[in-house]
Design goal:
By secondary structure, this protein is mainly beta. The chain is built from seven helices and 38 strands. The strands form seven sheets. The protein has a 23-stranded antiparallel beta sheet that branches. Strands 1-6-7-4-5 form a five-stranded mixed beta sheet. Strand 16 and strand 17 form a beta hairpin. The N terminus is likely disordered.
C-alpha cells in the first residue's frame, strides 16, 4: 500500500510542478503534436471512433533504438507481457493467461493471432520493426470492426508505404558485455517507375545472443510491396513478406540458480526454427467524395519446428531427460475483408462490410523418455496429432453521426457465424522390460456457433480542445477448436465438450483535453464483466493418464483506470510524459470467486522526458514501474480450485539514450535497464522454474540514407 500511495503522490507532484513552471507558454504547434500522440483517434482508414487511442510513431521507435515490437510496447503503461510457459503474449486490461485470445494483434488491419490457443504465442518476433510506420494501441474493445477476441483491446501495426525513390543502409549493434554481442544489418530501397507504378524492398538480417548463456537468435526479414495506381480513383498494393529464424535456448533456471547467477545456462536445451511467409493484396476504389470501397485479402503461414528439445523430469526420485525433438506447430490463415464507407454528411459516415476467415492449425507433439534401472527399463514415446479448423463469416456495420458541433454518436453491430472441425489422434508406444504396450485413439468432432457484438458511443465536445465519451460494448471470445475436445478420466476416451462463447460487457468513460496549449491529458475509466468464461478440470497439457474437461462456469470482472499526461515546452524541444494504469482483475463467480487473475499487475506506470538540445542532437530518459502479480500456482484437477499462487516481485526499469542527425547520417545509442535490476519474465514457483529478464544492455545504430 505504501508503494501505491507514494507513486500516485509522485505523479501528482510532477504534474503540478510542470503546470507551475510553464503555465504561461502558448504554442499552437504543441496542440497538434499532443493531439497526435496522446489524444489520438485511431488512424485506421475506417475506424474513426471517438475513443482514447495511443499512437507510437516511427520517429519515436527510431530514436529510442528499439530492436523489436516487444521492446517498443513493454514500456507503455497500458500494456503488459504475460508468459505462462510457452512464450510472451501482449496483455491489456488484465487478461492474464487468456491474453493470446483476448487481445487482438493486427498488421495493417489483418490479425496475426494463432488459432491454437493452448499453445499459440502471437508471433510478434516475425514483425520487422524497421518496416513499421506507427503502432496504434486501442485499449478495450473493438468487437464490431475487429470481431472475436478484443476484450482487452486491439493493437494495429501499420507498415511503411514508401513510393518515392530511396536507398538506405542501417547497422545496429547490441550486447550485454563484450562476450554477448549481436547485431542487425538492414537494407531499405524503393523505386518509383512512374506515376502509376512503384516498388519498395526491405531486408534485415540479425544474429544476437541473449542475456542468458546458451541463448541465440539469428535469421532475416524480407518485406516487399508493389504499388499500382491505374487512375486517380483506385490503387492496389501487393505485398510479400517472409520471416525465418533459428532460436537456441537453455531452458529454465531454479530460483536458487537465478538468484545466484541469472546469466547461467538452464537445465535444458532447445533449438527451434520458425518460417513465416505472408502474401497480401489491398485494393481501394473511390467512387467520389461520398463512397469508398476497400478489399483486403491475405494468406499467412507460420511453422515452428522443434529441431531439438531436451528438458529434465523427476519421477519417483529419478531425474531423467525428456525429449520433444520432431514436434511442430503450423498455423495457416486466409482472409478476405470487404468494406465500404459512405460519407452521407460532413463528419458523418456509415461503414459496412463482410469478412471471411479460414484458420487452420496443426500440432504434432512428440514426447519421449527412457528409464534404465537394473532388471527394469522403460522406453516410452507419446505422439499427439491435431488438425484444428475454424471458418467464420461476418457481417458488420458502424454508423458515426455528428448532430452538431457538440454532440455526436457512433453505434455498430456485428454478426459472426463460425464452423469448427477438430481431429485428434493419440498414440502411445511403451516398451517395459521387453514387453510392448501400444495404445491408439482417434477422435473427430464438428461444431458451429453464432455470435454478435454491439457498441454505442456518444461523444460530447465541451470545448475547442476537450471531449468526453461514454461507451457500452458487448463482445465475445469464441472457443478454440482444441477446447471442443475433452478426455474422460476413467475410460481415457475423448468426447466432445459443449461450450458457449465467453461474453463480455464493457462500460467506459473517457475524457481528453489540452490545457493552456501545452498540457495534454486523457483519462479512461472502465468496467468489464465477463460471463461463461471457459475453465477446465484436469490437465489439458499432460499426456500419459491425462484427463481434462473444458466447461463454462466462471465469471470475471475487470475494473480500472488509464491516465496519460503530456507536456511540451520550448517549441517541442522539451517533452515530458507520464502514464499510469490501474487494473483490479478478479474472478467473481465459481469456485475461485474472489481470487486475483494470475499474471496481472495492478499498477504499471511510466515517466519519460525527451530533450532536443539542437536540431541535430536529442536525448531521452524513461522510467517504467511494474507492480507485483500472482503466478499460475496449481489447479485442483477434480474441483478446478486455484491455490499456491505465489507473488511475482515488482520492479522498475530505467532507459537512457541519445540520437544524432547530420545530413544523411543518423546515429542512436543508449542503455536499457540502466541500474541492472533483476526481474522475471516467467515464474512457476510450484515447479521451481524461472526465466530472467534482460539485465543492463547497450545498443548502437548507424543509418545512412543515400
Amino acid at each position: 500500500m505504501h508503494k501505491k500511495i507514494t507513486l500516485i503522490k509522485f505523479f501528482i507532484l510532477i504534474n503540478f510542478l510542470l503546470i507551475d513552471i510553464n503555465a504561461q507558454e502558448n504554442n499552437e504547434e504543441d496542440k497538434v503534436k499532443l493531439d497526435e500522440i496522446v489524444v489520438s483517434a485511431s488512424k485506421q482508414d475506417f475506424d474513426n471512433s471517438l475513443r482514447n487511442v495511443i499512437v507510437i510513431n516511427s520517429s519515436d521507435l527510431q530514436k529510442k533504438g528499439f530492436s523489436s515490437i516487444e521492446q517498443a510496447l513493454e514500456r507503455m503503461a497500458e500494456i503488459n507481457f504475460v508468459n505462462f510457459g510457452l512464450g510472451r503474449n501482449i496483455d491489456m486490461r488484465g487478461q492474464g493467461d487468456k491474453s493470446n485470445v483476448a487481445v487482438k494483434v493486427m498488421i495493417d488491419g489483418k490479425s496475426i493471432n494463432m488459432l491454437d490457443n493452448s499453445h499459440g504465442v502471437t508471433p510478434l518476433n516475425s514483425i520487422n520493426l524497421d518496416n513499421v510506420e506507427r503502432i496504434e494501441i486501442i485499449p478495450g474493445g473493438g468487437s464490431v470492426l475487429y470481431g472475436n477476441g478484443t476484450r482487452g483491446g486491439a493493437i494495429n501495426i501499420i507498415t511503411k508505404k514508401q513510393k518515392e525513390d530511396l536507398f538506405s543502409i542501417a547497422i545496429k549493434g547490441n550486447g550485454y558485455n563484450r562476450h554477448k554481442l549481436g547485431g542487425n544489418l538492414e537494407i531499405n530501397a524503393a523505386k518509383k517507375i512512374n506515376e502509376n507504378l512503384a516498388f519498395s524492398f526491405n531486408m534485415e538480417g540479425f544474429n544476437q545472443d541473449g542475456y542468458q548463456d546458451g541463448y541465440n537468435e539469428k535469421g532475416y526479414f524480407i518485406n516487399t510491396k508493389t504499388y499500382i495506381n491505374p487512375n486517380e480513383q483506385s490503387n492496389l498494393i501487393f505485398g510479400y513478406n517472409y520471416f525465418k529464424s533459428k532460436n537456441t535456448g537453455s531452458g529454465y533456471l531454479t530460483k536458487a540458480q537465478i538468484e545466484d547467477n541469472p546469466k547461467q545456462k538452464g537445465n535444458g536445451e532447445n533449438i527451434t526454427s520458425i518460417n513465416r511467409p505472408e502474401i497480401t493484396l489491398d485494393y481501394q476504389y473511390y467512387l467520389d467524395d461520398t463512397w469508398e470501397f476497400d478489399l483486403e485479402t491475405f494468406w499467412q503461414n507460420q511453422k515452428i519446428n522443434y529441431l531439438k528439445d531436451v528438458s529434465m523430469m523427476t519421477v519417483m526420485g529419478i531425474t531423467l531427460p525428456v525429449y520433444q525433438n520432431g514436434s511442430s506447430f503450423e498455423d495457416t490463415f486466409t482472409g478476405i475483408n470487404l468494406k465500404s464507407r459512405y460519407n452521407y454528411k460532413d463528419n458523418s459516415y456509415l461503414i459496412f462490410g463482410y469478412e471471411f476467415a479460414n484458420h487452420d492449425a496443426k500440432r504434432t507433439s512428440i514426447i519421449h523418455y527412457d528409464v534404465n534401472m537394473p532388471k527394469f527399463s522403460i522406453n516410452h514415446t507419446m505422439t499427439t496429432l491435431m488438425d484444428m479448423k475454424k471458418q467464420s463469416h461476418s457481417l458488420f456495420a458502424l454508423d458515426s453521426h455528428e448532430f452538431n458541433d457538440i454532440f455526436s454518436i457512433s453505434s455498430g453491430l456485428r454478426y459472426e457465424r463460425s464452423f469448427y472441425k477438430t481431429n485428434r489422434n493419440y498414440t502411445s508406444k511403451m516398451l517395459i522390460t521387453q514387453i510392448q504396450k501400444n495404445n491408439t485413439e482417434t477422435f473427430n468432432t464438428e461444431n458451429q456457433g453464432n455470435n454478435f457484438a454491439f457498441e454505442i458511443t456518444p461523444n460530447f465536445k465541451y470545448s475547442n480542445t476537450g471531449s468526453l465519451y461514454l461507451k457500452y460494448e458487448r463482445g465475445f471470445i469464441s472457443p478454440s477448436p482444441a477446447q471442443f475436445v475433452n478426455k474422460d478420466q476413467k475410460t481415457q476416451k475423448y468426447y466432445s465438450s459443449d461450450l458457449n462463447s465467453e461474453i463480455f460487457n464493457t462500460f467506459e468513460l473517457g475524457i481528453n483535453d489540452l490545457w493552456w496549449d501545452f498540457y495534454g491529458f486523457n483519462l479512461t475509466l472502465f468496467y468489464t464483466l465477463s460471463k461463461d468464461e471457459i475453465s477446465y478440470l484436469g490437465n489439458p497439457h499432460s499426456e500419459a493418464g491425462a484427463f481434462w474437461k473444458y466447461y463454462n462456469i466462471d465469471q470475471t470482472h475487470r475494473i480500472g483506470a488509464e491516465l496519460n499526461f503530456d507536456q511540451s515546452f520550448l517549441d517541442d524541444a522539451l517533452i515530458f510524459r507520464q502514464s499510469i494504469a490501474y487494473i483490479d482483475a478478479k474472478i467473481s463467480k465459481g469456485i475461485n470467486k474472489g481470487k486475483r487473475i494470475p499474471y496481472v499487475s495492478k499498477i504499471k506506470a511510466s515517466l519519460g522526458v525527451e530533450y532536443a538540445i539542437n536540431s541535430n542532437f536529442s536525448t531521452f530518459l524513461d522510467l517504467t514501474y511494474y507492480s507485483r502479480a500472482k503466478d499460475g500456482g496449481t489447479i485442483d484437477e477434480k474441483t478446478g480450485k486455484m491455490s499456491k499462487n505465489i507473488w511475482i516481485k515488482d520492479y522498475a526499469l530505467t532507459d537512457i539514450g541519445l540520437s544524432y542527425y547530420y545530413k544523411k547520417l543518423q546515429i542512436s545509442s543508449g542503455i536499457r535497464n540502466l541500474f541492472n535490476k533483476q526481474y522475471y519474465t516467467y515464474q512457476d514457483s510450484l515447479n521451481d522454474e524461472y526465466l530472467s529478464g534482460s539485465g543492463r544492455n547497450y545498443y548502437l545504430e548507424l543509418k545512412y540514407v543515400f
